[in-house]
Amino acid sequence: DDYGGLPPPSKDIFEILGASPATATSSKSQRSTTELLFREDLNASKESTLLQKARYSSRMDATSVQELALTDVDAHMKTAVVTPAIEKQKNLATLSMTDRQRKELDRKERAKTKGSNWFNLAAPELTEETKNELELIRMRSVLDPKRFYKRSEMKTLPKYFQIGKVVDSPLDYYNERGTKKTKAKTLVDELLEDAEFQRYNKRKYAEALEKRKKKAYVKATMKMKKL
């Protein structure tokens, strides 16, 4: 009879496999015992690993708590970049700078003014118009023959200065006040509009030319005598 590739019911499967039922049973029991021991060892190793992790975490927590207790918070806050008053800082870009960069920036900022003893007198930009104004102030002793000024000690143009504007007093008569039409923007314009200064300037210029002519005549005469 054909049993679909299976042994007939009259034959025991152990005879076909060549093993007795007792041997198969013992091998099964041995295999189950091995699996049970392996599972017990695995569970024991897991428990030991979890116990070690718990001990390590508790020890680290205790260490971190002790370190925090010994940390000087005030000393760290003095050197901290982010302070409680960070929202009041005017320039937050300096927080990321090093000490050397911050010192260099402070030095450049201090160079922009004369200092607190001079009421932080600024160093303005020297334009061509400003240079002419300063040169006129240095030459003020030759602009007016009726006034005498102390000789200026500065041989170069000043770095720190301010140019102001004369404010007329409300007590002055309106004719004595300078109107917008008569007021000039600069000292050069004011001198060019002054008729008396123009006459004086032309006279002094003519005298300078006459002196030059005399000097040139004397030099030419001396040269002719040498020949």
Automatic annotation (TrEMBL):
Gene Ontology molecular function terms on file: RNA binding
> Is this entry keyworded Nucleus?
yes
Q: Show the InterPro entries listed in the entry.
A: Fcf2/DNTTIP2, Fcf2_C
Q: Which GO terms describe its cellular component?
A: nucleolus
Q: What is this protein called?
A: Putative fcf2 pre-rrna processing
Report TM segments. Answer: none
Answer yes or no on keyword Nucleus: yes
Species annotation? Culex tarsalis
Q: A biological process (GO) annotation for this entry?
A: RNA processing
Its subcellular locations are: Nucleus, Nucleolus
According to the entry, every stretch annotated as the Fcf2 pre-rRNA processing C-terminal domain falls at: 111-204
| This protein's UniProt keywords | Nucleus
